[in-house]
Write a structure and sequence with these properties.
Length: about 290
Protein backbone atom coordinates (compact mmCIF):
# COMPACT_ATOMS: atom_id res chain seq x y z
CA UNK A 1 0.00 0.00 0.00
CA UNK A 2 1.43 3.38 -1.01
CA UNK A 3 0.00 6.83 -0.31
CA UNK A 4 0.82 9.83 -2.51
CA UNK A 5 -0.41 13.39 -2.41
CA UNK A 6 -1.14 16.11 -4.90
CA UNK A 7 -0.37 19.70 -3.93
CA UNK A 8 -3.76 20.65 -2.51
CA UNK A 9 -3.59 19.33 1.06
CA UNK A 10 -0.20 17.94 2.04
CA UNK A 11 -0.93 18.32 5.76
CA UNK A 12 -3.94 15.96 5.59
CA UNK A 13 -2.03 13.52 3.37
CA UNK A 14 0.83 13.40 5.92
CA UNK A 15 -1.68 12.86 8.71
CA UNK A 16 -3.28 9.96 6.83
CA UNK A 17 0.11 8.38 6.11
CA UNK A 18 1.12 8.83 9.78
CA UNK A 19 -2.08 7.12 10.89
CA UNK A 20 -1.24 4.20 8.60
CA UNK A 21 2.33 4.14 9.92
CA UNK A 22 3.87 4.50 6.45
CA UNK A 23 5.84 7.33 4.83
CA UNK A 24 4.14 9.50 2.24
CA UNK A 25 5.26 8.38 -1.23
CA UNK A 26 7.57 10.64 -3.22
CA UNK A 27 6.29 12.40 -6.31
CA UNK A 28 7.03 15.67 -8.09
CA UNK A 29 4.67 18.17 -9.67
CA UNK A 30 6.05 21.02 -11.74
CA UNK A 31 4.57 23.75 -13.89
CA UNK A 32 6.16 24.41 -17.27
CA UNK A 33 6.64 27.94 -18.60
CA UNK A 34 3.62 27.37 -20.86
CA UNK A 35 1.44 26.65 -17.77
CA UNK A 36 1.17 22.90 -18.47
CA UNK A 37 1.74 20.61 -15.48
CA UNK A 38 4.29 17.79 -15.22
CA UNK A 39 3.86 14.91 -12.74
CA UNK A 40 6.33 12.14 -11.96
CA UNK A 41 6.56 9.43 -9.28
CA UNK A 42 10.00 9.15 -7.70
CA UNK A 43 9.65 5.46 -6.76
CA UNK A 44 8.34 2.26 -8.35
CA UNK A 45 4.57 1.69 -8.24
CA UNK A 46 4.66 -1.72 -9.93
CA UNK A 47 1.88 -4.00 -8.56
CA UNK A 48 1.23 -1.48 -5.76
CA UNK A 49 -2.09 -0.60 -4.12
CA UNK A 50 -1.89 3.15 -4.74
CA UNK A 51 -3.87 5.86 -2.91
CA UNK A 52 -3.66 9.40 -4.32
CA UNK A 53 -4.92 12.15 -2.00
CA UNK A 54 -6.14 15.34 -3.60
CA UNK A 55 -8.80 17.78 -2.43
CA UNK A 56 -10.34 19.73 -5.29
CA UNK A 57 -9.92 23.11 -3.59
CA UNK A 58 -9.03 26.37 -5.39
CA UNK A 59 -7.27 26.56 -7.80
CA UNK A 60 -9.73 23.76 -8.64
CA UNK A 61 -8.75 23.26 -12.26
CA UNK A 62 -5.04 22.89 -11.42
CA UNK A 63 -5.77 20.42 -8.65
CA UNK A 64 -8.14 18.42 -10.85
CA UNK A 65 -5.65 18.15 -13.71
CA UNK A 66 -2.87 17.22 -11.27
CA UNK A 67 -5.08 14.45 -9.86
CA UNK A 68 -5.93 13.15 -13.34
CA UNK A 69 -2.24 13.13 -14.29
CA UNK A 70 -1.29 11.31 -11.08
CA UNK A 71 -3.95 8.63 -11.69
CA UNK A 72 -2.87 8.27 -15.32
CA UNK A 73 0.84 8.08 -14.41
CA UNK A 74 0.12 5.47 -11.71
CA UNK A 75 -1.83 3.28 -14.14
CA UNK A 76 0.87 3.49 -16.77
CA UNK A 77 3.49 2.62 -14.11
CA UNK A 78 1.77 -0.79 -13.65
CA UNK A 79 0.03 -0.04 -10.34
CA UNK A 80 -2.28 -2.93 -9.40
CA UNK A 81 -5.05 -0.67 -8.12
CA UNK A 82 -5.46 3.11 -7.96
CA UNK A 83 -7.78 4.80 -5.46
CA UNK A 84 -8.49 8.51 -5.84
CA UNK A 85 -8.94 9.93 -2.33
CA UNK A 86 -10.85 13.18 -2.79
CA UNK A 87 -11.64 14.63 0.66
CA UNK A 88 -13.34 17.66 -0.96
CA UNK A 89 -15.08 17.04 -4.29
CA UNK A 90 -15.51 20.37 -6.09
CA UNK A 91 -18.30 20.81 -8.66
CA UNK A 92 -20.61 18.68 -6.49
CA UNK A 93 -23.09 21.58 -6.54
CA UNK A 94 -23.40 21.13 -10.38
CA UNK A 95 -25.30 17.89 -9.98
CA UNK A 96 -28.34 18.41 -12.24
CA UNK A 97 -29.51 20.25 -15.33
CA UNK A 98 -31.41 23.02 -13.53
CA UNK A 99 -31.03 25.54 -16.37
CA UNK A 100 -30.94 25.15 -20.15
CA UNK A 101 -27.63 24.61 -22.00
CA UNK A 102 -25.45 23.87 -18.97
CA UNK A 103 -22.98 21.12 -18.06
CA UNK A 104 -23.63 18.68 -15.22
CA UNK A 105 -20.07 19.26 -14.11
CA UNK A 106 -20.12 16.84 -11.15
CA UNK A 107 -20.79 14.00 -13.62
CA UNK A 108 -18.17 15.30 -16.04
CA UNK A 109 -15.54 15.32 -13.25
CA UNK A 110 -16.55 11.74 -12.33
CA UNK A 111 -16.12 10.72 -15.99
CA UNK A 112 -12.67 12.30 -16.14
CA UNK A 113 -11.49 10.59 -12.95
CA UNK A 114 -12.65 7.20 -14.24
CA UNK A 115 -11.26 7.77 -17.74
CA UNK A 116 -7.88 8.63 -16.17
CA UNK A 117 -7.97 5.14 -14.63
CA UNK A 118 -9.20 5.32 -11.01
CA UNK A 119 -10.37 1.89 -9.83
CA UNK A 120 -12.05 3.26 -6.74
CA UNK A 121 -12.88 6.60 -5.12
CA UNK A 122 -12.88 7.64 -1.49
CA UNK A 123 -14.55 10.94 -0.65
CA UNK A 124 -16.34 12.79 2.14
CA UNK A 125 -19.68 14.62 2.53
CA UNK A 126 -20.59 15.20 -1.11
CA UNK A 127 -22.82 18.25 -1.47
CA UNK A 128 -25.40 15.94 -3.09
CA UNK A 129 -25.17 12.28 -2.18
CA UNK A 130 -26.40 11.38 -5.69
CA UNK A 131 -23.02 12.45 -7.14
CA UNK A 132 -21.95 9.03 -5.85
CA UNK A 133 -24.12 7.56 -8.62
CA UNK A 134 -22.13 9.34 -11.36
CA UNK A 135 -19.36 6.78 -10.82
CA UNK A 136 -19.31 3.22 -12.14
CA UNK A 137 -16.28 2.31 -10.01
CA UNK A 138 -16.86 1.72 -6.27
CA UNK A 139 -17.14 4.89 -4.15
CA UNK A 140 -16.74 5.03 -0.38
CA UNK A 141 -18.60 8.13 0.77
CA UNK A 142 -17.44 9.01 4.27
CA UNK A 143 -19.29 11.29 6.67
CA UNK A 144 -17.67 13.80 9.02
CA UNK A 145 -20.72 13.67 11.28
CA UNK A 146 -19.10 11.59 14.07
CA UNK A 147 -16.15 14.01 14.26
CA UNK A 148 -18.46 17.04 14.35
CA UNK A 149 -20.83 15.45 16.88
CA UNK A 150 -17.99 14.47 19.24
CA UNK A 151 -16.49 17.94 19.10
CA UNK A 152 -19.71 19.79 19.85
CA UNK A 153 -20.87 17.32 22.50
CA UNK A 154 -17.82 18.47 24.48
CA UNK A 155 -17.68 22.08 23.30
CA UNK A 156 -21.30 22.84 24.17
CA UNK A 157 -21.12 21.09 27.54
CA UNK A 158 -24.22 19.01 27.91
CA UNK A 159 -26.05 20.58 24.96
CA UNK A 160 -29.19 20.95 27.11
CA UNK A 161 -30.15 24.24 25.60
CA UNK A 162 -28.98 23.74 22.02
CA UNK A 163 -30.78 23.43 18.70
CA UNK A 164 -29.35 22.22 15.37
CA UNK A 165 -30.13 24.56 12.47
CA UNK A 166 -30.24 23.74 8.75
CA UNK A 167 -29.36 27.00 6.93
CA UNK A 168 -31.22 25.89 3.79
CA UNK A 169 -33.51 23.15 2.52
CA UNK A 170 -30.60 21.16 1.05
CA UNK A 171 -29.13 20.74 4.53
CA UNK A 172 -32.24 19.40 6.24
CA UNK A 173 -31.27 15.72 6.07
CA UNK A 174 -27.74 16.45 7.27
CA UNK A 175 -28.99 18.61 10.15
CA UNK A 176 -31.67 16.15 11.16
CA UNK A 177 -29.15 13.31 11.25
CA UNK A 178 -26.77 15.32 13.48
CA UNK A 179 -29.69 16.42 15.68
CA UNK A 180 -30.74 12.79 16.16
CA UNK A 181 -27.19 11.80 17.04
CA UNK A 182 -26.97 14.59 19.62
CA UNK A 183 -30.60 14.19 20.77
CA UNK A 184 -31.38 17.83 19.97
CA UNK A 185 -34.31 19.61 18.35
CA UNK A 186 -33.99 21.05 14.86
CA UNK A 187 -34.80 24.38 13.18
CA UNK A 188 -34.75 25.27 9.49
CA UNK A 189 -34.10 28.48 7.51
CA UNK A 190 -35.70 29.39 4.21
CA UNK A 191 -32.74 30.57 2.09
CA UNK A 192 -32.79 32.01 -1.39
CA UNK A 193 -29.57 32.27 -3.41
CA UNK A 194 -29.36 35.64 -5.20
CA UNK A 195 -25.96 35.13 -6.86
CA UNK A 196 -22.77 33.12 -6.50
CA UNK A 197 -21.75 35.16 -3.46
CA UNK A 198 -25.02 36.56 -2.08
CA UNK A 199 -27.95 34.82 -0.40
CA UNK A 200 -30.93 36.01 1.55
CA UNK A 201 -32.35 34.09 4.50
CA UNK A 202 -36.02 34.86 5.10
CA UNK A 203 -38.14 32.72 7.38
CA UNK A 204 -37.21 30.49 10.29
CA UNK A 205 -39.14 27.33 11.17
CA UNK A 206 -38.51 26.18 14.74
CA UNK A 207 -37.77 27.71 18.14
CA UNK A 208 -34.35 29.21 18.86
CA UNK A 209 -35.39 31.75 21.54
CA UNK A 210 -32.83 31.75 24.38
CA UNK A 211 -31.01 28.76 22.85
CA UNK A 212 -27.55 28.00 21.54
CA UNK A 213 -27.91 27.49 17.80
CA UNK A 214 -25.59 25.09 15.96
CA UNK A 215 -25.70 25.71 12.20
CA UNK A 216 -24.76 22.66 10.12
CA UNK A 217 -23.80 22.78 6.46
CA UNK A 218 -21.66 20.72 4.09
CA UNK A 219 -19.36 23.60 3.20
CA UNK A 220 -18.60 27.21 3.94
CA UNK A 221 -17.45 28.95 0.79
CA UNK A 222 -18.01 32.75 0.75
CA UNK A 223 -19.80 32.47 4.15
CA UNK A 224 -22.85 34.29 2.75
CA UNK A 225 -25.16 31.45 3.84
CA UNK A 226 -23.58 31.27 7.28
CA UNK A 227 -23.69 34.97 8.05
CA UNK A 228 -27.28 35.43 6.87
CA UNK A 229 -28.33 32.45 8.96
CA UNK A 230 -26.49 33.71 12.07
CA UNK A 231 -28.07 37.16 11.80
CA UNK A 232 -31.55 35.69 11.39
CA UNK A 233 -31.05 33.39 14.39
CA UNK A 234 -29.96 36.28 16.59
CA UNK A 235 -33.02 38.30 15.44
CA UNK A 236 -35.16 35.36 16.55
CA UNK A 237 -33.62 35.36 20.00
CA UNK A 238 -30.78 32.80 19.78
CA UNK A 239 -28.38 33.36 22.66
CA UNK A 240 -25.24 32.13 20.92
CA UNK A 241 -24.50 30.87 17.40
CA UNK A 242 -21.96 28.17 16.52
CA UNK A 243 -21.44 26.55 13.11
CA UNK A 244 -20.09 23.22 11.90
CA UNK A 245 -18.95 22.33 8.37
CA UNK A 246 -17.30 19.37 6.76
CA UNK A 247 -15.50 21.55 4.20
CA UNK A 248 -13.96 24.90 5.16
CA UNK A 249 -13.28 26.31 1.70
CA UNK A 250 -13.26 29.96 2.89
CA UNK A 251 -13.09 31.91 -0.39
CA UNK A 252 -13.27 35.66 -1.14
CA UNK A 253 -14.87 37.60 1.70
CA UNK A 254 -15.46 34.55 3.94
CA UNK A 255 -13.06 35.32 6.79
CA UNK A 256 -13.97 38.99 6.97
CA UNK A 257 -17.68 38.09 6.99
CA UNK A 258 -17.18 35.53 9.77
CA UNK A 259 -15.20 38.06 11.83
CA UNK A 260 -18.02 40.61 11.62
CA UNK A 261 -20.90 38.16 12.15
CA UNK A 262 -22.62 37.37 15.47
CA UNK A 263 -20.98 33.92 15.60
CA UNK A 264 -19.04 32.50 18.55
CA UNK A 265 -17.17 29.79 16.67
CA UNK A 266 -16.95 28.07 13.29
CA UNK A 267 -15.56 24.52 13.18
CA UNK A 268 -14.69 22.83 9.90
CA UNK A 269 -12.71 19.68 9.21
CA UNK A 270 -9.35 19.64 7.47
CA UNK A 271 -10.60 18.24 4.12
CA UNK A 272 -9.51 21.61 2.72
CA UNK A 273 -6.03 22.93 3.51
CA UNK A 274 -6.25 25.32 6.40
CA UNK A 275 -5.91 28.86 5.12
CA UNK A 276 -7.94 30.51 7.86
CA UNK A 277 -5.67 30.60 10.90
CA UNK A 278 -6.06 34.38 10.84
CA UNK A 279 -9.42 34.17 12.59
CA UNK A 280 -9.62 33.22 16.25
CA UNK A 281 -13.22 32.17 15.64
CA UNK A 282 -12.25 29.33 13.29
CA UNK A 283 -11.37 25.87 14.59
CA UNK A 284 -10.15 22.90 12.59
CA UNK A 285 -11.27 19.32 13.26
CA UNK A 286 -9.21 16.42 12.00
CA UNK A 287 -10.57 13.71 9.69
CA UNK A 288 -7.13 12.16 9.07
CA UNK A 289 -7.80 9.13 11.33
CA UNK A 290 -11.21 8.58 9.69
CA UNK A 291 -9.63 8.45 6.20
C1 LIG B 1 -25.28 25.18 -0.67
O1 LIG B 1 -26.35 24.70 -0.95
C2 LIG B 1 -24.33 24.58 0.32
O2 LIG B 1 -24.95 23.65 1.15
C3 LIG B 1 -23.70 25.67 1.14
O3 LIG B 1 -24.72 26.31 1.88
C4 LIG B 1 -23.02 26.67 0.26
O4 LIG B 1 -22.08 26.01 -0.53
C5 LIG B 1 -22.32 27.72 1.08
O5 LIG B 1 -21.82 28.68 0.22
P1 LIG B 1 -21.51 30.13 0.75
O6 LIG B 1 -20.61 29.99 1.94
O7 LIG B 1 -20.81 30.81 -0.41
O8 LIG B 1 -22.81 30.79 1.07
Amino acid sequence: LMVFSGQSNLALAREIADNLGIPLGKSTTQRFANDCLFVRYEQSLREGDIFIIQSLTPPVQDHLVELLMMIDAAKSSSAARVTAVIPYYAYARSDKKDAPRISIAARLVADLIQTAGADRVLTMTLHSAQVHGFFKVPVDHLSAEPVIANYFATRLEGLENAVVVAPDAGDLKRASSLARRLALPIAFIDKQRLSDTEVTSRGLVGDVQGKTALIVDDEVSTAGTLVQAAELLVQHGAEAVYAAFTHGVYVGPAIERIERAPIVEVAATNTCAYRAQVSQKIKQLSVGPLF
